[in-house]
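Ticket #4471: structure export looks truncated?
Reporter: QA, pipeline team
Priority: medium

Steps to reproduce: submit the single chain below to the structure queue and open the exported record.
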Amino acid sequence: MPTPFLSSEEYDERAHALYDEGKYDEALVLLREAVALYPSAVELHVGFGYARLAREEYAWARRSFDDALVLDPDHEDALAGLGEVLLKFGQVDAGVRTFERTITLGYDDDVDLMLQIGRALFREGFVDVSLAYFERAVANAADSAEAVACLGYAQHRLLRDPEAIASLRHALALDPQFAEARVYLANLMYDAGDLDEALAEFEKTSPPDHWDELGIWRLIELKKSVYKLDDTDGELKPWELRLIELAGETDDIDDLLEEVEQSLFEQDTADLPEEKEQLEALGTLLTGLVTQHQGEQAEPTSTDVLAAETTHRVIMRDGTVFEGTWVAIVESLRDARDAGRPLPEFMAAEARRYYGATGMSVASDAPETFLRGGADAGMLRIVR
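Actual output as written to the record:
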């Protein structure tokens, strides 16, 4: 039931507090009540827009920002929100022009606004445009570690690594406790081949500072290499536990796509049971004939036998260990996650999942290349 004793400003403050806590549903309920009481309150429409934007309800968010701009065409927060929505809809030119209007109106000295716009552009891949907004933020707040770090992130994405490293070091000089910037700098030093500096920066972080597995894998490998630690060393335990935590934080969309893909595969195979059995029988027969023919052609050498029996050890991100030949490891991994699926299809599906998680392409044509590619992508570790 509406609470008419609250002013529009009080409604706005309460909704803003809920938004900051990530309680978007509750914020929307409160804002809906508030807008019904104070339909001309611009801030309430703006708050409505940002709550919708946080819930990825872009059409509704645009309507709220449009309503706010009808009431106040020069409202800077409404312009910034509308610009972000336009980017989401692919209306890039219109979005950029909307952002530029905040500059025309003289809001380029609003550091928080410049950072907000810069991040929106950065997230959508318009890094070169975002750089100008981060530069404006730094120009107006040279002592802001956050602004300087954002400048460094954009410089890195634009392949200006020396400048990025300098910016991140400056940000850390301003705020030595800025964990996000330190993790980023450590990864940059690692990529640059300065492993000693990378380890020095990594060691100034703690497991909760990391929200990406890559940095933790790199830290573990550097520690093992420099300090000669084995896999069971207690010093690595907190980092391995953090890896397990991060591995459990799956993306809802990825999970849904995986379920749909698996459902379609099961449906396809269920529709053709006889054909599937015939193909499997034919495959077994052909494999037997090839093996028989190869046996008749030549006896295996001692080197061949040794290669076939080489045992490898692989550790997954959740700590699960698999041992055996490359083929045996992939088969065990398949049996643990997707029993019954043909090995090539399993590797192909996993390779797609790896790409979605890391952006790195992983070959799926053979067990060894699949596992080595997975290790390069940071999805697993090959111990031997």
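Status: closed, not a bug. The export was complete when the record was re-opened. Leaving a note from the reviewer for reference: Confidence is low (pLDDT under 50) at residues 296-308.
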